[in-house]
Specification:
The protein is an alpha/beta fold. The protein has a domain of about 150 residues: P-loop containing nucleotide triphosphate hydrolases (Rossmann fold). About 50% of the residues lie in helices and about 15% in strands. The protein is built from nine helices and seven strands, in the order βαβαααβαβαββααβα. It has a five-stranded parallel beta sheet with strand order 2-3-1-4-7, sandwiched between helices. Strands 5-6 form a two-stranded antiparallel sheet. Helix 1 packs across helix 9 and helix 4 packs parallel to helix 5. The longest helix has 15 residues. The protein is globular and about 45 Å long. Bound molecules: adenosine monophosphate (AMP). Adenosine monophosphate (AMP) binds next to helix 2 and helix 3.
Length: about 220
């Protein structure tokens, strides 16, 4: 059942956590454009500097640059039986570009919305911390690490707070989601390719709903 699974949800909805679980447990590679851009930021190139500035402000990288990155990454061997996209597409143009890519690669698209009420998202974003070694995601309010500000699996590593999880950038990212990405829910709904999971509650409960949709 080769397909592209597209996870759609506001920043802070938990797409990353769930995509990582799907990858670990079902062996489907998880491609996060946000993670790829975060890695790119560390390079010393003009493009890396541009990416860094756009991300810090909570805005979107251009559709063409993003497409190139997705095209490159998904042409690797590990994606030959399908893959999960976390954070892509985010605009109508990206959705159209993905249709072309899916056609070329011979995959169907299954879109799944991870739905979380707006009032919870801000808390999740500003409370989010992660481990720079293994990528484990914590939240100081809802999923704190066992010891203060260090990873449970890498106790020598201080957790990091994403530069774009400050209140101002987080608010911009939520507005961008409403304006640019939310309309994609309608787009996939109209073509009968959208399902939805409740993104509140325990991570395992959310995963159970998702895994059923992905494998069903
Ligand atoms: P995320 O980790 O998915 O929240 O992404 C972090 C940031 O990376 C976003 O706020 C954007 O600046 C950039 N980014 C990630 N995915 C995309 C995308 N599909 N299109 C444009 N920019 C993106």
């Amino acid at each position: 059942m080769a397909k592209i699974i597209v996870l759609i949800g506001a920043p802070g909805a938990g797409k990353g956590t769930q995509a990582r679980l799907l990858q670990e447990r079902l062996g489907i590679p998880q491609i996060s454009t946000g993670d790829i851009f975060r890695e790119m930021r560390a390079l010393d190139t003009p493009l890396a500097k541009e990416v860094q500035a756009i991300m810090a402000a909570g805005k979107l990288i251009s559709d063409d640059i993003t497409y190139k990155i997705v095209q490159d990454r998904t042409s690797r061997e590990d994606c030959r039986n399908g893959y999960i996209l976390d954070g892509y597409p985010r605009t109508a143009v990206q959705a159209a570009q993905l249709e072309e890519l899916a056609k070329e690669q011979g995959f169907d698209i299954q879109a799944i919305e991870v739905d979380v009420p707006r009032d919870e998202l801000m808390k999740r974003l500003t409370g989010r911390r992660s481990c720079s070694v293994c990528g484990e995601i914590y939240n100081i309010y809802s999923k704190p690490p066992k010891s203060d500000n260090v990873c449970d699996f890498h106790p020598e590593t201080q957790l990091t707070h994403r530069a774009d999880d400050n209140e101002e950038s987080a608010a911009t990212r939520l507005t961008t989601y409403d304006e640019e990405t939310k309309p994609l829910l309608d787009y996939y709904q109209r073509s009968g390719r959208l399902s939805k999971v409740d993104g509140t509650g325990e991570s395992e409960q959310i995963y159970a709903q998702l895994a059923k949709l992905v494998t069903g």
